[in-house]
Structures are given as structure tokens and as C-alpha cells.
What does this fold into?
Amino acid sequence: MKATSHKLLISAILLGLAFHGSALFFTLEMTYDALVHLFFADHYANNWFEPWNYKWYTGFSVMSYPPLVHQSIAALSLIGGLKFGLFTVAISSVILFITGVYRFSLLMTSNTTVAGYAALLAVFSSSFVETLHVFGQLPSIIGISVLMHAMPPIYTWLKTGKYAFLFISLSLIAVTVTSHHVTPIFGMIFFIFPLIGMVIIDISREHVNSYKEVTFKLFIKNFGKQFKRNISFGLLSLCIIIGCLLPYWINSKNNPITQIPIPHGSRDNFLEITSSGLVFFLIPWGILLFLLPYFFYRYFSKRYLFFGLSFTALIILGIGGTTPIPKIILGENAFNILTLDRFTFWASIMVLPLFGEFIYRFVEGDLKALIKQKFGSVYHRLIGVLLASFFLFTTIFTINLSYFRPFQVQKIKMLPIANFLNQDQHDQWRYLTLGFGDQMAWLSTQTNALTVDGNYHSARRLPELTTRAVERLENSKFKGVEGIGSLQQFLTTPEKYRLKYIFSNDKFYDPILYFCGWQRLQRLENGIMVWEKLNVPPLSSILPKVDVASWQKIIWGIIPLVTLILAFVLNLRFLFIPRLKTDIMGVPEYLKFKNKYTVFSKNLLKTTHLWSFLLCLVLCFGLYLFYLKNDSQRTPENVIKAYYDAIDFKEFEKSHQLIDPKSNISFSQFKLEIAVSDGLLSSYAKLDALKTEINKKTDSLVILKVDTDWITPLEKINKTEYKTLVNRKGKWYLQPEKIDFDLPPNQLYSNNVTGFFNQGRRRITTEQTHHEDVLKQPVLEILNAKLVKFNNHYAIIGEVQNIDNVPSDIVLKGTLYNDESKELATYNAKYHVKHKLMPKEISSFRINFEGIAWSKVQDSIPQVFNPDEFTPVELEEQPTKFNLQAEGNVSNSDLYKSVVLSDVQINSKTIKGTLFNSGLQEITIPQLLITYYNKDKKLVWVNHMFLKNGIKQQRKQYFEYNFAENKQLIIINEDMKDCYVNGLSNTAISDKIIPNRIFRHTRNELQKVVHPLYKYVKIEMNNYIANPK
Amino acid sequence: MKSKNSLFFLFSWLVIHSITAQHSLTLLTQEKQFVAGSVILLEFKADHTKDYQLYCTNSYGSTLITSEIKNNKIIFKIPGHISNKKGILTWKVINTDPPFSGKVQIISKERPTSLETYLGPPSIEAGNTDFTMLVVIPTDDLDNPLKQNTEVVIKHQFLAMEKKEIVFTNNLIAHQNIFSPLKIGRMILSSASLGLNSKEYDVNILPAIGINFNIFSKRNHEYADGNQITTFYTSIIKDKNSNVVSDGTFVDFFITNKKGNILKTSGTTINGIAYAKMIHPEWEENWIIKGYIIGISESNSLEINYKQVIEKFDIIFSSNNRTLTIGPLISFMNQMIPDGLQVKLSIYKEGELLNDVIENSKDGFVVFNLNSNIYENGNYVLKVTTAGITKTFRTIKLW
It folds into this structure.
């Protein structure tokens, strides 16, 4: 008996190492968390005793996460590098987990063979596979594994009171807490409390002859007897939990998590959001779902009663927002901070001993006999094959989940980026990555440069980040929602964060970067586009940090590894001693409560069958619903949905299949037609919502009104279209749309333009700025500037001209003051300015004073993202004065000006017109800046509009602009004495270069409009070119 | 008791006197001026030889030096980092009564080994008003600026002119404001001092703001076909000193059309000429064009006319009046109009505008389909507009 169990355990370990060991190298780096842990490890490898990390979030403390796993990786990295450390720790965690399950199962079942089976099954447990290979939660795995290792000694201590076991269990709890703080806290509740209950029942059992005779009275009596030991153990554990991580608790008290909760799939209603249901319910449970009746039956037997209660609680907590119970139990706050998938993970681990037991009984025990007797041996084998194949299927599916549903962008080569940051002192500024996914953590470990972003959201400090439910700026387009709003603030006022470089791996962000005044620097050899912002001062050499006492740093650096070494020594001792001198330790206490496994309950078998049948029914029904929803041509609505989805994901072949075959559009023609349409809507929009309404329906034809909401990086677009669908042989098809027939006049044509090139440093030297190489800042002139109040928010509007001889990049920074010259707010011009001006070119501008959106907790966060969302800054006092700083820097990019306003028609509400692209570049996003004037031709307001479609060379694009709503608009201050250009007085500059300015020029050529408030407008054109040639 | 006290005072007086007497020093070193880099020794004669400390200060900082004793002389050796620097060195022997202090002057060496030069701004505007400043600091090998009134020759070359001027250092530096010439180009500057020549520096002289200019137009034909392109261009724009304005200067062209609306195109100059393009209108037009470098200069007004190409067009109703075929749209030589002419169909019902449908012509025709699912049977008013001509059909019945 004993020999088989060891064989089973050894084969489980070998199998586990072979299976997970080979898979890890393909999965671990693509998981959500592994690289974050690697980043922390990198921190410890470089600064073991310094908890402050400058690299992320303008600085944060690593004392916000238990350090053991990170420190272990860091220690190992000294031997073979960070990744060696990571994989070594990951492989160790596999061994720890398998042996942990073995020991836990042995404790629970008192049967070495059953424990061996459980260990074997643990290797392929889908929840373990998911946690390791999909989520990469190493600390969590190590935490629970060590906790399982701790349970036999805890049992023995509680039962026998031998101090040796107390020390072992406490040493293991110390390791648990230093690797993952949440595990021992909830582990106390869900694993150790039931264990205490079990010990008391076992003690009671020893007083009587069978578990049946264990009464509540007896239980209470023994509870009293055991109370001292239990309470001493509880208090000591509490001391360990607090003591070992003392700096962590101090840090959390000083910096409480006051951020807006970040949505997590595990809190969703799994029935509504089926993808969350798959990842957080179906996958971790897998085959265990079929055996639930068995687990409940066994765990609600008297001995395991407390485990039964704990198991039930874990299941309920694990199903997240599907039922309201978790929210009620945990409370609103904890519910929104905790990720609930861990409860399912623990529940699935808690049943592993019973799963082992079931399989043991099924393979060689009483269940096999019962099934053979009732249904015959063929049925037994068939069920065996089914169970095994379904079990392995879930495991294989889980480990390869990223193949079916990629959750990371393709692996990015980091070396070119690291080289870029290290050369030419580019690391003197902060950088930001866009579209890197969790790989941004890997970049952070490879460079000394700092980023404003980060990948450990609990440590965020900037209000711009903590007030948004955004995990990272990096992926702001996904989660949701208010991400881009957060990103915008960083892009508009990068000086504040010393943010100069952006690495973009996602062209979705390009327009917002451009219109916030960024320019493309170069494309690195790994395909990453580097964007740069001019006029950002470098980081100061001394950065602020929140320091902690030295004793905290020392215990944080020493205790975790000491607990590990201590636990290792203590456990090794007791692993070997029993083998050598069995008589000292005797047979472990928990092996005294054996179950004979002779009679498998017939009713239980029946229930299991019934349950499995029900489950199959539900599964089939679910699949059927899934089919109905996804059969794209079943209903006209499905066709529309499928068509837009396909277009959204650029699956042109699929979308072409939905086009009416009788319209005779070939796939190549269809693709061509789509390919020629570029612009905000066709290249940068993500479909957010789609609403269809049937206007007219016959058997063969349906007209649908399709309302679509598109999210683009710049604004939200609502579009209403009428689509005609036809029914051909029971399938619905979409009628194609018409294309633009406009024919440009020239086949080949030429255009002369002036090109510019800035050498930067002429000399190959590391000198920061060789003074001979510094170009003069181009001289600008602020022609006009005034502070206005519009619908309760303030803005500085005006006009600026580049009066130099070189093209210039423009940065406009406005500051508001009250009567006592107290500074109230500062912001930069965002969309409402042409950021690049040719010599003598003019641009109108408007500086909006944006606050940090939703900065108050009581502000309700809108459910749906609106990139246009504007939160006016809240000012305590009335601004009455302003200061405007214009900075020019020589720029040689994005100087395309060949947009022509070729027709204008005005009515009382709109301006309709035509833009014509007269140059050599294809305009991706045209923008109009509309400046409003009153009857005295005085500037009163500036507005803008993005055109939804691009303009190809020598082609036209129509636009329709609605006048700004004429609500209250008050001009507060027109005094321009505090306007500065490159730090010098605006008046002095203009007097020198253009002493006799002809003011009527700006007034003569204004477009007259019929509008109650505005009498004239000026239309200026700006444009974004996605692919400059 | 009294005598005891007197004795004590006498003794004290003697002691004090002897101590102060010990501290009386005499400076032996006669020189008050040293050349930077030379060894500076301050020698003192003292009644009693013992170690003294000297506190010395110059413009770079202060330090404390301990004396050496040689031949009954107290000698202080001023360390190199002080003796290498030009300026006044103030010293004071510590713990003497009365305080014993003095100063010596350290002067720079005779000849410069480098000319520290700064020139800025690197570009200025032509026309004698803007200037750049050249600052030259002749320094010796210890980085000390040479003495007051050292002669510095500033040389510059611009076009055919080569000029030499002599300035003298004042307060350590020699500087000169160099005013821009009337013409644009590159000015090369250098300096020399006591036989040492600097390297070459340059200043770009850029043109000043432009003056008024003329504009012209160029087009393939004078028809309003909505397809061809008219190019507007300027004369060579120059500043008041006849320098061609810098390349890339932005010129706005405002076009006032027949309705009084303002259209806009723009160009940037190359060799003073800015080209701006404009697509032909789709209907008869009279454009008045004026070019501006805004706030700075402007052009003459240019007037051009476009002739109507489509005088009339036919509309054929078919399929229960639900299909409108417009065309042929014929251009000036009776050829089909090039694809892309805009045709607008406005649909009114009971005096209310239901929809504007815009289509582009293809092969001279445009077809509108009024879908029965959108436009129910009934009477409609249809207006077809193209090339500035509107045809209205009252009470068209769709069925």
C-alpha cells in the first residue's frame, strides 16, 4: 500500500515537472502577471534594501506587495539572470503544489494511495493550470501550496500539543504570508478554521465508537478543552502574519487604496458576460462540476462538516457577480478590491483530496465494483474514458487558451527600445508605452528610464490615474472606457511628468498623439513607432521619494528569505527523522482516521448520474444559444452584427460573404473599395454599440435602421445608416453600398515643397548641448489672447503666428489667476491649435482648463467611455487674469499644408463645404478650426471639428459643421500684458520683428454668417497624415 | 592678603604680555603681485617659532593652511588651486593679536592659450536692426582671463566685405554687437588675440518680413467643370532690402466667390514664389483672389471667371417614378462630364425637407433610387441640383 502511494507521488512529481516544465517556457511570459513579478524581482536584484522604486508611476513603494517570491527570483537571478530565476521559482512552485496536495490529501483521507491519486490529478488540475499558465500568479500558487504543507503539522499540533509541530506550522505560515498576504488571511478562514473543527470532531470521535455518536454536546465540551491550544495557535499565527509583513501593513495604513475600483471579470455576472464565465468558472471547475454531488456528500459528512461549510462559501464567493451574495458577504469595498477568482481557485483545490478519493474508488475501489455490478464493466470503462478525456481536454484547452483567445500582443523585441532609451541620454525623460500589454513590465526591467505608467495598479499615486478605472494607460483603449480620458491628460501636459517619448505599438493611438502636439521621431527596427514631444525639460537629478525607517527596510529585506530558510530547515529535519527513527514521531495522528471505502452509496451514484445528465442538458442548451447568436445569416440583425464585427476586426473575407451574391461584387473589388477609404472612422474606430431597428420587413427584404456608436481615439461618433438586406434561399444578405466615383484630374503630377532637416548635435559628442549646435527658438507672436467663460468653464482663446523664418512647433501654456494673483489652474492647448506652423502661418487656439475627471468619489463615473468627455477644472475662486506662455521649437515634421477649402455654403445652423487635397500626401484625419467673431470682428470663441473620412490626393471631401451652441459667453479679460514668447515679452518681440503689423488682414477676409451671437467666422484647416511618404 | 593679590595680578600681566609678544609676526615677503601658476610663499618672521594657521580666501573659495618652519621663518605655501587663479588673495593669520592680515594680487599670464568664444543668436534678420553678439575671452593655460584692456581683433567676412575691428577686454571679456547687413547670407566670424587665432564661427543672416507682391493664375481652361485645377502663384516675394523671403513662408490666398463666401487655399514659398492650387468650381463663378502674408504684406486683387459647362440636363423618371436618371451631363465640347460631378436630390413632402441625397456622376449619368421602404407611396416635391442649376418637380407621385 505504502509503496504504491510513493510511486504515485513520484510519478506525479515527474509528470508535473515534465508537463509544466516544458509548457512554462511557452506560456509564462505571455501571462498576465509573471512579468510584473519579474519587474519586482529586478528591483530587488538591484536594490535589495531600498523599497522605493522610481521606474513606475512617478515612484512607488515595493512594500505594497509581499516580497518573498520576488526576492527569491532576485536571488536566483544573481546566478543565471532574471528569467532563470523566474522559471526556477515557477518550477519549484509546481513541485510545491503537487507535494502540497499530496500532504493535504493524506491529512484529509488518511490514505496514502488516495493522496497519491490526488497528487496525480493535481498535475492536470485545470484551475492550477489556469492560475500558472494563463494568469501567472506565482505568489498565489506558492502561498496556497505552502499553506497545504502547513496543514498536517497544524493538525498534529492541535491534536497532540507537541511544540515541535507548532513551530513547523508557524514557520510554514510565515512563508505563506511573505509570499502572498491574501492567502493566509482567507486561508485562516477557509482552510484552518475547518481544520480546527475537524480536529475537535476527531478528538470527540476518540471518546466514542463512531462518528455517529459524536454529538454537539461532546463537540462543545472538547471545544472548551481545545480552546487554549486553538487560541494560542490563532494568536501566534496572527502575530506571524502581522510581524513578518509589518512594513507591508504600515505601508497600507499610510497609503490606503483610495482609488476607483478597476473592473475585473471575476466580479461579472457570468451568465451575462459569458467570456468571464468561461475563464472564471467553467475552466477552473472543469470536470469537477460533474462530481459536485460527491463533494457535497463527502464534505457534509460529520467529520468534514466544517470543510463542507467552507467549501460552499468558497463556491458562492467564486461565482462573483452572478449572485448578489458575495457583495453582501464581503461588503461593497472588499468586493471591489478583491479579485474573486481566487475563491474558485481555493475551492477547486479544497476538493482535490476528494477528487483523488473518487478516482481511487472509481479505478480500484468500491465504486468500480458498484458500477460493474449495476451497469457492467463496459459502462465502467466507457465512463472512465469519458472522464479522462474530458479532464485532459479541459487541461489542454486551458494551457493553450491564449491560442484561442490571445490575451497579449505578440512578443515585442525590447532591445531596440532599450538601446534607444540608453543612447543620447533619452533616459533623462520619462517614457510611455502604448499597446504593449503586460510586456511593458519586461521593458521596464531592461532600462533605467522611468515611465509614468506601470503595471501594478494598487501602487498608483497620481490622481490622474487613481480616479479612473484604468489598469494601465498603456491599454487605455480596452478596459474601457475612461482610459483615453486619462491618457489625454498625460499627452496634453507632458511637461508636468517630464514625459518626452512614447513607444507606440498600436496605431489606434496615433491620431490622439498627433492632435495633442506629438511628432513621430522614428520607427525602430522592431516596428515600434517612437513619438516625441518638444519643449519638455528633463527630469531633475534628485527625484522625490517617500522614505521609510531603516528598520523597516532591513526587516523587509531579511525576514522573507529567513522564513524560507527556517521553514526549509525545520521541515527537512522532520521529513528525514521519521524515516530514520520512526519510533520517535510515531505514525502521524491523522492517519488514525482511516476510511475503509467498502460501500459506495447507491443513492450517491444515482444523484451523480442525474446531476451529470442535467449538467449535460444545460451545456447543450448553452451551446444551442451560442449557435443561435452566432449564426450570422439567420436573421437580418445577425447579418448586420456579423458584418460590422467583421469590418471592425478587418476580416474582409467574412464581411464579403455577407454581401448579396447577386450584386456581383468580387472579393477583390470589395476589398479594394474598403481599402481606398481611410480616415478616422474606417481606420481608427472601434465599434462600441450597435442598435438595429426594423423599418420595413417583407419575407425577402428588410430595411434596417442601424445606429452605431464608434469609439475613436479623438471622439465618439454616432452614425445612423439605413441598410437593405435580402433573403436568398433562407439566408440573409446585405446589399452593398455605393462607392465614390470622383475622378481626379491628373494621373501623375508634381509639387515642390521645402524640406527641413535638423542635425541635432553636429559633433559626435556626449556633451549635453554643445552651444554652437543649439538652434534659436523660433519667434512667435501672440496676436490675440483673451480669457472667456463659456457654459461655466473657462478658456483662453486667441491667435498665434510664427513670425520667424523656420517652421515651428507650438506649445501654448495658459495659467489662470484671481484678483490677488493666486494661481488657480494651468493647462496646455490640446486639439484647438495647429501644433506645427510654417513661417508666418497663423493658428487660432483655445486652451481648455481641464480638471482631473471624476476626481471626487461621489462623481458618478459614466458607464460608457466618451473620448470627448470634458471635465472643467473646479476653481475655488473666480479667475480674472491669465498668463500665456508660447514656446516655439524648430520642427521639421508634419508640415503638410495642402488642404484647400474649395466650397462653402452657410445657413443659420450649419456650414457646409468641401475640402480638396491639393498635395502629394493622403490626409487621414482632416481637422477644421473654426474661429468665431462678433459684429466688431472681435474674436470670441474657437471650436474645432474632425472629419470622419480622410481625403486622398486630388480628391474632395464634403463636411457639415454645426455652429457652436450659443449659450452664455463672457469675455473676462483681454489684457495681453502677461503674454510671453519663449520667455520674453510678447510686445517687445512683435515691436522688433513686425513693428507695423497690418491688423486689417485678419479682419478683412472673414466669412460672414447668420447667427444670433456670431457675425463672422474663420475656417482653418489642419490635418493628420498617418503614413507620410 | 592685599600683597598676595598684587603679586597675582603682576604674574598674570607678565604671562599675558609674554603670550601676545609671542604672536607678533612680521611679513618678510615683499611681493604684492604674483603670476598665476607660480609658487606663492608667504614668509614671516616670528619671535617664537611655532605652527601657525593661515586663512586665505579668493574668489573661488576659502581654505586654511598650516605653516612650515624653515630657518626660524614661518612659511605658508599657498596651494595650487588658489595660486592658479587670477584675482585678489586675502590672507589672515589665525590667533594673533592684533589680527595680522593682508592681501596679494594674482595676475594672469601674459599670453593667451585659448579664446573662449560665444556667439548668439546664431541667426539674425537682415536690415541693420537685428544683431548678434560675439563674446571673446582670451584665457591663459590656467583658464584665467587675461588682464584688462587686452587687445582682441574681431574679424568678419560677409559677401565681398572683410572687416577687422579691435576691441579691448573690459571686466574680463571682449565683446561686440554685430548688426545685420542689408543682404542675406552667411557671415563668418573669427577673433584673434596676441597672435592666437580662434576657430570659425558663423551667423546666418535671414531675410526680413516680405513686402507687397503680385499674384497670378494659371489654368487649363476657363470652364467650371469641377475637375481641373487652377494654380495661383505669387511674384517673387522680397523684403524691403530686396532679399527673397525665406523658403517655406506661408502665403494665404483668400477667394471671394459670387455669393460673397470666402474660399481659401495656401502655399509656401520656394525662392520667393508660393504656389497654391484650387479645384475648379462646378458652376459659373466669378472669383476675386487676394494673397496675404498675414499682418505683413498683401497682393493685388486678381479676378477670374469660370464659364458654366452644363447649361441643361434631362431627368427621366422610371419604375413608378422611383428611379431618376439624370443625364447625360454634357460638358463644353459636348463630351461627357468627368466622373465625380456632384448631383443633389432634395426630397420634400408636404413642404418639409425629408432628405438630401448626394451622388457623384459616373459616365455622365447619375441614378437615384427612391426605395419604397423609405419613401412611401404619395406625392413628393423633388429638387435636383447640379452645376448650380436646380430643377424642381412639384407633385411627383411615387407608387
Remarks:
- The CA atoms of residues 673 and 739 of chain A lie 7 Å apart.
- The first strand of chain A starts at residue 52 and ends at 53.
